[in-house]
Design a protein that fits this description.
The longest helix is centred in the first third of the chain and has 7 residues, at about 30-35. The protein has helices at about 30-35, 135-140, and strands spanning about 5-10, 15-20, 25-30, 40-45, 50-55, 60-65, 70, 80-85, 85-90, 105. The strands form 2 sheets. A 7-stranded mixed β-sheet has the order 6-7-8-9-4-3-10. The chain has about 160 residues and is mainly beta. It has a single domain, classed as Beta Complex (Metal Binding Protein, Guanine Nucleotide Exchange Factor, Chain A), CATH 2.170.150.
Length: about 160
């Protein structure tokens, strides 16, 4: 039986399936990855030993350097891929089950933001813990694609 993973962007315009084993999962702190993800770092997993199939739509690509391009959803902007001559890596957060893909190494630490190592020390609260924001948040309707494929998407 082949290992299979699925995922996609937040609006559902782009969906994918990975057939076969995932490779090394990592986070990259380099400045290019920070900008591409609009974040402290880019969590990525290699799919070079597997087959990546776009099951709905295809990502738009930006040539971020002379050696690599990055795929993203043209509709909602979700970062999806890092594509280089040695293979493709997919954004861990774009998978339907990102909790199953744990990074094993950090790259680009020369650009690592010093405070990233201390985020776990910050106070932690549940989303609805703020009594002023809770009523608003409790009635919020998400238009994001669910973490699985469905025939009834998008919502009517």
């Amino acid at each position: 039986m082949t290992e299979t993973h699925s995922g996609g962007c937040q609006c559902g315009a782009v969906r994918f399936r990975v057939d076969g084993p995932l490779g090394d999962a990592s986070v990259c702190h380099c400045r290019m990855c920070q900008k591409a993800f609009g974040n402290f770092y880019a969590p990525l997993v290699s799919v070079r030993e597997a087959t990546l199939v776009w099951t709905r739509g295809k990502p738009k690509r930006f040539q971020s350097s002379d050696a690599a391009q990055r795929g993203f959803c043209a509709d909602c902007g979700t970062p999806l891929t890092y594509e280089a001559p040695d293979g493709i890596a997919v954004a861990i957060g774009a998978f339907d089950r990102p909790q199953d893909i744990a990074p094993k190494i950090q790259w680009g630490i020369e650009a690592k933001l010093a405070y990233v190592d201390h985020i776990h020390e910050l106070p932690q609260e549940h989303t609805l813990s703020d009594p002023e924001a809770a009523p608003f948040l409790a009635t919020l309707v998400s238009y994001q694609h669910p973490d699985h494929d469905t025939e009834s998407w998008p919502p009517k």
